[in-house]
User: Fold this.
Amino acid sequence: MKRLWRSPFPSSCATIQRFEYTFELAWKLFRKVARIEGLEVNSPRQAIRAAYDAGLLEDIDLWFELLEDRNRTSHTYDESTATQVFESAGRLPAALRSAIKIIRHNYLR
Assistant:
């Protein structure tokens, strides 16, 4: 236990948790946009695909990688996975800001 608390893992827990719920909100936003467009979307993968097809996402591969990282956090609780997800989480804010900018332009005029 002492080793765990000396590692960078505990300090990254909050970032990982923010990553998880921010990703959840992002894919659900993409699902709402898809429904506005008349598409039935039920999973994060479908929502990402629909958002990409609608021109909301520039890099679909990045979003699929973020989805895999989110899935890893749901099923794995080891330090190496946490470190990998922590590093990946830094890519989410810019990607999400870009998508939100496009959504605002296309749907909130």
